[in-house]
Amino acid sequence: MITGEYKNKVDGIWDIFWSNGISNPLTVIEQLTYLMFIKTLDDNELNKESVAAMLDTPVVDPTFDEEHQNCRWSVFRNYEPQAMFDNMIQNVFPFIKEGLGNSTDTAFARYMKDATFLVSTRAPSRALWRSSRR
User: Fold this and answer.
1) Hey, is 59 helix, strand or coil?
2) Which of 17, 52, 81, 105 has the highest Cβ tally under 10 A?
3) DSSP string, 71-105
4) What is the structure's pLDDT at 45?
């Protein structure tokens, strides 16, 4: 059973989705999974950058090229709500749908081709990012 601080965070996130008309638990889990995946991509890239800096070498096989730095969690989490929402719709989701799974034959590409960010308003986006910070 979840208690205390984590329960409050889960309840807060659930309320954000509920207030956006997303009440199906599977849909909420799907949306949270997308957000966690996006954050994990950036965390892994930060680790690769740290190792590369320590070894004074370039980052091997970077996930985010110069064009897609705005798709990194560590970058867009500091945007204003409207800019964050617009970035998610116009850049981040297209990037994870098309930029990561370049081959349409991969399981990833098949799964992500229909991915949609369902938070339909700008205000809750900021609260979701705040709730998901470490």
Assistant:
1) coil
2) 17
3) GSHHHHTTS-HHHHHHHIIIIIHHIIIIIS--STT
4) 94
